[in-house]
Amino acid sequence: MEFALWGAMALVISAALSSAASLGNVSRFDELFQMNWAADHMDYDGGLVKLKLDSSSGAGFASKRKYIYGKATVEIKLVGGDSAGTVTAFYMSSDGDKHNEFDFEFLGNTTGEPYLVQTNIYVEGVGNREQRMDLWFDPTTDFHYYSILWNPRQVVFLIDETPIRVFENKEKKGIAFPGYQAMGVYNSLWNADDWATQGVG
């Protein structure tokens, strides 16, 4: 079975770094991103990006630059029908064992069941901050905006500009916060049939 993810990958970055200040509001996919695995499973027509998952591979791409603070937004239409065992991921991550990471993971569903969205935050290599929720709409019928806002005060996950999760900076209370590591922006479609169907596993 072959799955396809269609997404208009116009990335919106409002970065605090001067090196990223020249990006403006919206840039073309090929100006900001490059394939980081399975280039033969991606189709880009100058506007839409299509990632394909089949029995041999999924696909993924990464930003050419890394950013410290900002907002990344991607517009995605998820796989329709039976997508059990698939994960569509939109995330930001730094490098190394002590990396920081912010995840949007869309867990595949069986036909007729709702999609789950899972968010997670890694700080200095430690995750285990997963939160799951049912989407209040069908993400397979139209494109929706998914955003990660990161600044010194908070990390906010948004869907269509509605906040669904806020992780506040509480370092003064001894709670680690992901700061000061430049992060890339990533998107992928992959097989996780051992745990990804409605988050079972």
UniProtKB/TrEMBL annotation:
Q: Which UniProt keywords apply?
A: Glycosidase, Hydrolase, Signal
> GO: which molecular function terms?
hydrolase activity, hydrolyzing O-glycosyl compounds
PROSITE patterns named in the record: GH16_2 (PS51762)
**Signal peptide residue numbers:** 1-20
- Record protein name field: GH16 domain-containing protein
Kindly identify the residues recorded as the active site.
101, 105
| Keyword Zinc-finger belongs to the record | no
Q: Name one Pfam family in it.
A: Glyco_hydro_16
Q: Which domain of life is it from?
A: Eukaryota
The chain positions of domain GH16 read: 21-201
State the Gene Ontology BP annotations.
Answer: carbohydrate metabolic process
Would the keyword Signal be found if you checked this record's keyword annotation? Answer: yes
